[in-house]
Amino acid sequence: xxxxxxxxxxxxxxxxxxxxxxxxxxxxxxxxxxxxxxxxxxxxxxxxxxxxxxxxxxxxxxxxxxxxxxxxxxxxxxxxxxxxxxxxxxxxxxxxxxxxxxxxxxxxxxxxxxxxxxxxxxxxxxxxxxxxxxxxxxxxxxxxxxxxxxxxxxxxxxxxxxxxxxxxxxxxxxxxxxxxxxxxxxxxxxxxxxxxxxxxxxxxxxxxxxxxxxxxxxxxxxxxxxxxxxxxxxxxxxxxxxxxxxxxxxxxxxxxxxxxxxxxxxxxxxxxxxxxxxxxxxxxxxxxxxxxxxxxxxxxxxxxxxxxxxxxxxxxxxxxxxxxxxxxxxxxxxxxxxxxxxxxxxxxxxxxxxxxxxxxxxxxxxxxxxxxxxxxxxxxxxxxxxxxxxxxxxxxxxxxxxxxxxxxxxxxxxxxxxxxxxxxxxxxxxxxxxxxxxxxxxxxxxxxxxxxxxxxxxxxxxxxxxxxxxxx
Length: 472
Ligand code: NDP
Known about the structure:
Its EC number is 1.3.1.21. By secondary structure, the chain is mainly alpha-helical.
């Protein structure tokens, strides 16, 4: 079996466009031997550590609702929100200004999930493979997210055009929708937890930490599915979370127009950048199969509730804020920050594309015009089978170990800066992304060290910086 076959089984889906591979020769890759087990650590964590780690199960929904209240009722000022909480008590503020359940919002969320499920299931798409799981499974996925994104936005536009839907519907019913999405995210997480125990899709790819609450939070099943093909993770992360993002921005644009009679450049530019990010995601959806969300994270509250509720609530704060409080910096300041956002996006896309192209071609590609440099790392799955992975050491991946995160972070700070406010709330997205990506980097590197052992050490020796050379 040659290297390409060993890394890429016959069922591997369509490749991205590659440079001609015949003329390429990779530079003397190093082969380093595997360590015995990976992907199943976690058992034995103390109950107190598990409890602290799982605290977002309670805190994150309260944070999402508090943020909505702060924007809608306290002008986006956390200090005003906290003084009100001090004076009246948290639960009083929640009852007074928090989401009130309405049939309309509940129905909207049910229809949203139903329509996305139908598009996910029925639209045509190429079949792509994911990565080998710790138990040795290689799952296939139908990739049709871009069609779904186009149809969803076209459908929203047509409903508004024919007067069947107010384009500002989401902004107008935001608090109630967030309430309903919180509930939907909780139900999805509870269903995933029960399913993992009662009818798991791949029993040997489950991870039990020894703590029920931690299992609920981080998930038990790696790739829960309904039937053979309805993949929870691809559906909820991509279709429910990312798909909603652009609709929420557009709805806030419409709301600003309806209430002010104009749309400000700041909100237009933010919507443009975030649409670029979301469309990029769906355009490159097969790439997503090789990211941590799909390849390594288990499906529980963190991903289930996170994608259904946290992502729509927190990633759109800039648009929510500007929809209610239109502000705009001078045009040249806005354009300067916007161009930083574009550069950040280019770095994010280029780094992700390099890794994807490199992995899809089993290392037989050009990186920055030169044959890819890499380390061959061996690892074993639970069934005892040995595999090889390639670690790219040139291009962005030779500059730092997470250049894609640097691009993403810079992008998030640019979109927050475009709001033109020093209020902490408008920076929430970038603060969150900093915490998420730093934590993710540390957690992923721990896992990769266990998976590849000396090969990972060698990569860290060759590429010593995590984010920015000289800094960290
Ligand atoms: P990566 O795409 O960087 O994937 C990490 C995996 O890539 C590792 O686990 C490892 O997997 C493999 N890998 C690591 N180093 C190398 C190398 N040198 N050569 C080849 N493969 C390597 O991370 P994420 O999945 O976290 O993120 C993907 C993108 O999504 C990023 O740009 C990130 O910024 C963005 N993102 C955005 C979020 C948001 O909420 N907006 C949330 C999370 C991510 P293996 O086990 O296969 O070796």
